[in-house]
Amino acid sequence: EVQLQASGGGLMQAGGSLRLSCAASGFTFDDYAIGWFRQAPGKEREGVSCISSSDGSTYYADSVKGRFTISSDNAKNTVYLQMNSLKPEDTAVYYCAAAHFPSILTAAQAMGVMTQGGMDYWGKGTLVTVSS
Predict the structure, then answer these.
(1) By the number of CB atoms within 10 A of the CB, which of 2, 64, 100, 121 ranks highest?
(2) Residue 1's pLDDT is what?
(3) Does the pLDDT of residue 20 top 90, yes or no?
(4) Torsion of Cα atoms, 94 then 12 then 68 then 105, to 10°
(5) What per-residue confidence (pLDDT) applies to 90?
(6) Is-contact 70 51, C-beta < 8 A?
(7) What is the pLDDT of residue 104?
(8) 3-state SS of the chain?
(9) How far from the centroid of its chain's Cα atoms is residue 97's Cα?
(10) pLDDT-based confidence at 103, cuts 50/70/90?
(11) Looking only at Cα atoms, what is the longest distance across the chain?
(12) Half-sphere exposure (CA, 13 Å, Cβ side) for 86?
């Protein structure tokens, strides 16, 4: 059974840090892009970050660039999102998703496809709350 499970969310004060994990089971990351998305109450879903296994590239939304870092541990089949300098506007449910691309795509290209709904797997989210 294929599963993606996001974890690591919690309550943090502004300026603090959290590390989210996305653990995959039932498939390996070869030829996959893994993306992090978030959705705050009353707002549209936003693509936050992505990592491409085909070329190792990464993508960050402007809203998190310089503060968030995505990384992958293929041995553990886990992707991490290190979130530093958290802001109240980072409050949202964070989800991870996976998309299979048989050809090489950069993380930015993969995020573009995934944002349009081109995902193979979508995991349950983890809530991040940042207080001011």
Answers:
(1) 64
(2) 85
(3) yes
(4) -10
(5) 98
(6) yes
(7) 82
(8) CCEEEEECCEEEECCCCEEEEEEEECCCCCCEEEEEEEECCCCCCEEEEEEECCCCCEEECCCCCCCEEEEEECCCCEEEEEECCCCHHHCEEEEEEEEECCCCCCHHHHHHHHHCCCCCEECECEEEEEEC
(9) 7
(10) confident
(11) 43
(12) 23
pLDDT for 27-80, tens place per residue? 888 889 999 999 999 999 999 999 998 889 999 999 999 999 999 998 999 999
> Given the structure tokens 């349950």, which residue do they identify?
124
Burial of residue 121 (CB within 10 Å: 0-12, 13-18, 19+) is middle
Angle in degrees, CA 6, 7, 12, rounded to 5: 130
pLDDT for position 121: 93
Closest CA relative to residue 29, chosen from 61, 76, 70, 68: 76
User: What one-letter code names the amino acid at 94?
Assistant: Y
In sequence order, which residues have a C-beta less than 8 Å from that of residue 115 and are 6 or more positions away?
47
Structure token pair of residue 75: 């041995």
